[in-house]
Specification:
The complex is a heterodimer. Chain A is α/β, with parallel strands linked by helices. Chain A is 34% helix and 31% strand. Chain B has helices spanning 16-27, 31-38, 44-67, 70-73, 75-116, 123-138, 141-157, 159-162, 190-199, 219-245, 256-263, 272-302, 311-331, 337-372. Classes of the chains: A alpha/beta, B mainly alpha.
């Protein structure tokens, strides 16, 4: 009996082991010398010839070797990824990808397909930064092929820097934030826009999206105001060339309030900061003049906020996530159509309150 | 073959805390597996609270069992309550439930492991290795296992604090938590309710090990605390994920709390989720070990109980569990339809046992009290 039990046991465990071993553990080969992690993908074109897109990247990152731009014309994003592997001696790994540059023309046709591809890849982090580019991005890359020119890494560091602690100079949006904005019932996403020009990569402003396709772009002071309005932000400099004033170290607290029938909205913005620059600082001699200047800036900001918002209303987009405010604890969430209808005709009241540090030390 | 006694009991100290930790850990097992299909609407937060209260009711009945002298007597206690035949029927009935629970837990965990940590490795490997580890754990015997739960609890409770950053993310707004009550023609969420209830299930298996818990009258206090901690953890993680994803984006994600772990960043180690998943394995391994021991115990009840426990017996129990789990994983666990079948099955089985087992025991105690008085 005992022998029988023992024999059964040995047989059972043996068969179980072979059963398990029939599925061979094949680990991915990740020896550091044999792989090349990449930092970004850039996607251009699409639509013109049978929906092909050009995808490119820069290899190798960080090592002090002459770099090269890999570029392929493909119809699917991962087809490009595979193609890169066939043209380069190392295996490219998407696990370290940090940036996704998308051409403006592509963004105007809708980003969903592209984003879904990136999103489903379990290797790619949700912290991937999304950027809209203009101009010839590949040419810009080609100018940065030097041995010490880690342009890919520096670009990543730049986004990282401005994202951290909400530095408030440029708009920074990562994949997760974009998806959350896209999925929220009534609101639309926004993304930063950069222009590649020769050797330079210039920040242009913020792109507004209608669902997943880019519809508008704002720059300069509109962009600054957008950054103030979108959540409570810190802005290093608020430059107002029309008034010849620069406000510095701005902290804005925005209170948005919708009336229950959605016919009007009031925005109160408390701006704290100081005057960093004026065509002549000494021009302000007494409190009266200081108050007058403050009031002038307030009126100016109010006008610009209203202009920016009415631009959004005209396009029926909501990049500031105002529609989110319609959610109430005990009532049904409204549909996109209802919100669009109300939003486009909504009356907007804006009140800006400036709290500026008084000027000292100036003559 | 060396004789080992897995089910010996040597000490008689107070052990309310073991019951607390055990209840809490077994209740928290399901969360990361089950949550995505259960709690996608903000008002389902109320379901957690409601089911927590329902679970408290079951725990109350359990505590009645712990308060009787039978609980401390082990096998003799059961024999007095149900009779020899009754025990055999119960043991026979518990075997498939235990096997189902083990299979469901280990395959789901293996799937997460495979998807996030070792994508190119077959899932079966993630089942075989944890099983070997669990059997090793089980070797130390029931008494040590019960004590070990303290370490498991301390080793996994910190995961809870990892989710605090999600309350502070910039893109959060309180409006993501609205509406708080279901409005309009929503499909009735009884299935989700059942799912949440089955997530709270598990403590009913404590009946089987009550002998080692040195039960006493104050057990209800510890069970209540454990239940409250579980409700708190569930609420905490659900609110965090609702705030982080919003109620429209959340349903599209299969393992929200693992994906959230991926979003965490540490300056030293980027893939925080790998640490997180590995830490989760602590309580998974522990419960599998516990259940394997229970399978062995139950199968002993079916045969001869007088003989000593043997290593072979334990290994056979482990192999039996593995022999059920591996084929399910290999042939009957395709993502999608079949997976949701197992989820449904486990959901029904878990809820049913959680409701019926304490009820059964309670009724048996009442009947016994009436016949003896």
């Amino acid at each position: 009996m005992k022998r029988f039990v023992r024999a059964t046991l040995v047989l059972l465990s043996f068969s179980l082991l072979t059963f398990a071993c029939s599925c061979v553990p094949i680990p991915e080969n990740n020896i550091i010398e044999e792989i090349t992690p990449i930092i970004f993908w850039s996607v251009q074109g699409g639509g013109e010839e049978d929906g092909k897109i050009t995808i490119s990247t820069l290899v190798p990152p960080l090592i002090k070797v002459k770099k090269r731009v890999l570029s392929l014309k493909v119809s699917l994003l991962n087809e490009g990824n595979k193609g890169f592997n066939l043209t380069y001696y190392n295996e490219l790994k998407a696990g370290q990808i940090r940036l996704l540059f998308v051409d403006e023309a592509y963004a105007k046709r809708g980003l969903t397909r592209l984003i879904n591809t990136v999103l489903t890849d379990p290797n790619i982090s949700q912290r991937l930064y999304l950027v809209i580019t203009k101009g010839n991005f590949n040419q810009f890359l080609a100018k940065h092929l030097g041995e010490t020119d880690n342009i890919d890494y520096y670009l990543y560091r730049m986004f990282k820097h401005y994202e951290k602690k909400k530095q408030g100079e440029i708009t920074v949006v990562n994949l997760h934030q974009f998806m959350k904005m896209l999925y929220s019932q009534v609101s639309d996403p926004q993304l930063p826009v950069f222009r590649a020009e020769g050797e330079q990569f210039l920040y242009e402003g913020t792109a507004f999206f209608d669902r997943d396709s880019m519809v508008a772009e704002i720059r300069g002071k509109d962009d600054q105001i957008n950054q103030l309005l979108y959540r409570d932000r810190f802005v290093r400099y608020l430059v107002l060339p029309d008034l010849a004033v620069t406000l510095g170290h701005i902290r804005a607290h925005t209170h948005k309030k919708l009336t229950p029938d959605l016919s009007s909205m009031s925005i109160e913005i408390d701006v704290k900061g100081r005057i960093d620059e004026l065509d002549s600082l000494a021009r302000i001699e007494d409190n009266f003049q200081f108050a007058a200047l403050t009031q002038k800036i307030e009126r100016y900001l109010e006008e610009n906020v209203i202009r920016l918002l009415s631009q959004m209303q005209k396009l029926q987009i909501d990049p500031l996530q105002i529609g989110g405010l319609t959610a109430k604890p005990f009532s049904k969430p409204i549909t996109r159509d209802t919100w669009d209808r109300h939003w486009s005709t909504m009356k907007i009241n804006v009140k800006v309150r400036l709290h500026l540090e008084p000027l000292t030390k100036v003559k | 073959m060396q004789a080992i006694s897995l089910f010996r009991k040597t000490s008689h100290q107070e052990s309310g805390f073991y019951a607390l930790f055990l209840t809490n850990r077994i209740q928290m097992l399901y969360y990361m597996i089950v949550m995505p299909s259960a709690l996608v609407q903000p008002y389902m937060l109320l379901a957690i609270v409601a089911m927590g209260i329902a679970s408290q009711f079951c725990l109350y009945m359990l505590s009645k069992w712990f308060a009787t002298p039978y609980a401390a007597q082990g096998y003799q206690g059961f024999e007095k309550l149900f009779g020899k035949r009754g025990i055999k029927i119960l043991a026979l009935a518990s075997l498939p439930l235990l096997l189902l629970k083990i299979s469901f837990i280990s395959i789901s965990y293996a799937e997460i492991m495979q998807q996030f940590v070792f994508p190119s490795m077959d899932r079966e490997w993630h089942i075989v290795f944890p099983f070997i580890l669990s059997c090793y754990l089980a070797l130390f015997g029931m008494e040590n296992m019960v004590r070990f739960v303290t370490i498991v609890f301390i080793g996994t409770i910190w995961i809870f604090f990892l989710y605090t950053p999600y309350f502070l993310v910039q893109s959060n707004s309180i409006h993501d938590l609205y509406p708080l009550i279901p409005i309009g023609p929503e499909p009735f969420a009884w299935k989700s309710l059942l799912l949440v209830f089955s997530s709270f299930s598990g403590p009913e298996f404590l009946i089987a090990i009550s002998y080692w818990l040195n039960p006493q009258r104050k057990m209800l206090k510890y069970l209540t605390i454990a239940n409250a901690i579980s409700v708190g953890e569930y609420l905490f993680i659900s609110i965090a994920s609702l705030l982080f994803y919003g109620s429209k984006y959340l349903p599209t994600i299969k393992y929200p709390n693992v994906e959230m772990g991926r979003y965490l960043q540490s300056p030293v180690f980027e893939r925080v989720d790998i640490i997180l998943i590995s830490a989760y394995s602590f309580s998974f391994l522990y419960s599998i070990a516990l259940f394997v021991l229970m399978i062995y115990g139950a199968s002993r009840l079916l045969g001869k109980t007088k003989t000593n426990t043997t290593l072979i017996g334990l290994i056979v129990s482990g192999c039996a569990a593995m022999a059920v789990t591996l084929p399910i994983s290999k042939w009957f666990w395709e993502p999608g339809l079949e997976q949701s079948f197992w989820l449904d099955l486990q959901m029904w089985a878990g809820s049913a046992t959680y409701l019926l087992v304490p009820l059964l025991v309670w009724i048996a105690i009442k009947r016994k009290a009436r016949t003896t008085s």
